[in-house]
Write a structure and sequence with these properties.
heterodimer; A: alpha/beta; Rossmann fold; 3 domains; seven-stranded mixed β-sheet; six-stranded parallel β-sheet; about 15% strand; elongated; B: mainly alpha; 1 helix; about 70% helix; rod-shaped; disordered C terminus
Chain lengths: ~525, ~45
């Protein structure tokens, strides 16, 4: 084979393997960016034009542009993305899960990972044939003269770019790249949508907890917007864990807590969730910190009985945490002689409740138990008021009503709150509504994590060892091995358009708080 | 020529093995994150 033929052959193979690398990369990126990722294949056309330009003019600029473009493709898409972040990540993390050196990423579709394997194999060919092509070109270049060999220093320029680029790409994706002395803690809640009042209050509460602590180590709170859909929550937790490298997570809202749980489990980081869905807490990495539905139900039924109610009508939105409350309430009512005479669940989009209110009135209940998020909650409150219904009660929901005046005289169970925390919070954040259902638990959850980091104990081990914590929500307890911090709610009333803990209920001395605490400790 | 072909066959077997072995690994990992039967779907940004 003549030198010219050799150069043509290596040029064709170099181009073919680069084209394959680009094609597989574009397939891989289809999963990220959709059909526009296919436009990446236009780079193959550019490479072809550069080769044709070189063949017709022998301009060095053409071949070196081709070489640099090829080096970028081989490095960025072949070696870093396809090999390091794809093939080695899949196999390395599977066969050597505890080494902690391989790139970690969120779950990816098989097609994405397969395209990564193919990209990395094609890039090896591109690297090999690219070097052969450059070598043949340099050997035949007039300026290099007949004695030029593959050891020409020019050949090392693209190779140096590839080695340096690969090293940089690998380093940037490694734990060492973010191994500074700041401990990042993820905060994942929805700060928009129907649960926004809860989420915004949550964020303020953890910020206040961090501000008020004097610590030896430095901490950074990284906020993840969990949005209103599981897809948004996944994007948020993946960003927190795999991009921001948080070392613990505090979150709120059961809907997002259910999505977050498998991520924190897979990555072995603790997750304290202000969530009422019991199964989110596994006692290993995931813990709930809010009264469980049965704790809420016990408190609610006790208060209903104390007020002389014998029958109840339930009008509640379909939602995971509300489902838990309603189921627990039904169980507790059955053992306490409180009869459910009407029960109607409705979707979040409901706006006309008149028929169900009429049906409930026909059952003549002593009390109407309502639970929903806004806007449904306040619409329901308005229509109940128009229908002349005043004997309304709830679990938690009235705490997030934008129109407490609609529920004047109503009562509900919600968290016990340290009044001093409420005063500090309202002074610090006068524009943020104090949501009792979130704030003390968010505040306490962050403090548990800070205690753990400050202690120097591995953080997941520390949280697993906490069975009692006295904080803003009173005493919270956890039976060893379980995933639920338990606490008891207080009874709140709405009077003069304002929410406050009921003095009647607390003064009567049901002893709910200590009873539950003792029960959990046993 | 025969050796060349053998090398290509060996390479093809290696790549296919890599692809085939990756399937259960990826599926097992994804099952931990998603409810049974549901596929990991794009688009995603992280």
């Amino acid at each position: 084979m003549s030198p010219e033929q050799k150069r043509h052959a290596s040029a064709r193979l170099s181009f073919a393997s680069l084209t394959l690398t680009i094609a597989f990369t574009s397939l891989r990126h289809l999963f990220r960016f959709g059909p526009p990722a296919l436009l990446f294949n236009l780079i193959s056309v550019v490479l072809l034009l550069l080769l044709l330009w070189y063949r017709s003019t022998r301009r060095a600029l053409a071949v070196w542009t081709y070489a640099l473009l090829g080096a970028w493709i081989v490095t960025g898409f072949g070696l870093v993305d396809g090999l390091w972040k794809g093939t080695l990540a899949v196999y390395g993390n599977y066969f050597f899960p505890h080494w902690g050196v391989f790139y970690r990423s969120a779950p990816r579709p098989y097609g994405f990972e397969a395209a990564g394997i193919l990209t990395s194999v094609a890039s090896f060919f591109a690297l090999y044939h690219g070097c052969r092509f450059l070598q043949a070109t340099l050997e035949n270049a007039p300026a290099a003269g007949p004695t030029a060999t593959c050891r020409s220093p020019l050949l090392y320029i693209p190779l140096a770019i590839i080695v340096a680029g690969t090293g940089l790409g690998v380093w940037r994706g490694s734990p060492a790249a973010v191994a500074d002395d700041v401990i990042r803690i993820g905060v994942i809640v929805p700060t928009r949508g129907p649960a926004a009042p809860l989420g915004q209050a949550f964020v303020r509460a953890v910020e206040l907890a961090k501000e008020e602590r004097t610590t030896r180590r430095r901490y950074e709170l990284v906020i993840g917007e969990s949005g209103t859909t599981p897809q948004e929550t996944r994007a948020a937790i993946e960003g927190l864990i795999y991009d921001k490298r948080v070392r613990a997570v505090v979150g709120g809202i059961s809907l997002s807590g259910q999505v977050v749980k498998p991520y924190t489990t897979a990555e072995g980081i603790p997750h304290l969730c202000v969530c009422s869905v019991r199964t989110i807490g596994d006692g290993v990495f995931n813990f709930t910190n809010i009264p469980l539905p049965e704790d809420e139900a016990i408190g609610w039924v006790n208060e209903a009985r104390r007020r002389g109610a014998r029958t109840v009508a339930i009008l509640a939105q379909e939602y995971p945490s509300i489902d838990g409350h309603i189921e627990a309430l039904a169980r507790e009512a059955a053992t306490s002689g409180l009869r459910i005479v009407y029960k109607q669940r409705f979707p979040a989009s409901s706006s006309d409740f008149r028929i169900m209110i009429d049906e409930a009135r026909q059952a003549n209940p002593d009390i109407y138990m309502v639970e929903a998020f806004n806007p449904a909650l306040d619409l329901l409150g308005q229509q109940l008021r128009l229908a002349g219904v005043r004997n309304v009660a709830s679990i938690v929901a009235l705490a997030i009503s934008d129109r407490p005046d609609l529920f004047e005289g109503a009562w509900y169970t919600d968290s016990y709150v340290d009044e001093r925390l409420q005063a500090r919070f309202e002074a610090r954040y006068p524009d943020t509504r104090f949501v009792a259902h979130m704030i003390p638990y968010a505040y306490d959850s962050l403090n548990i994590l800070l205690d753990g980091f400050e202690s120097g104990t591995p953080i997941a081990d520390y949280v697993r060892g906490v069975t009692r914590h006295q904080g803003a929500a009173g005493i919270i307890t956890r039976t060893p091995g379980t995933g639920n911090f338990r606490s008891s709610p207080a009874v709140w009333v709405i009077a003069d358009g304002k929410r406050r803990i009921s003095r009647d209920s607390s003064e009567e001395g049901d002893g709910l708080l200590p009873q539950l605490a003792q029960r959990a400790e046993r | 020529m025969r050796r060349d072909r053998l090398e290509w066959v060996a390479l093809a077997v290696l790549v296919l093995s890599l692809l085939a072995r990756a399937y259960p690994i990826v599926q097992a990992r994804n099952r931990a994150f998603y409810p049974a039967g549901s596929e990991v779907a794009g688009p995603f940004m992280h």
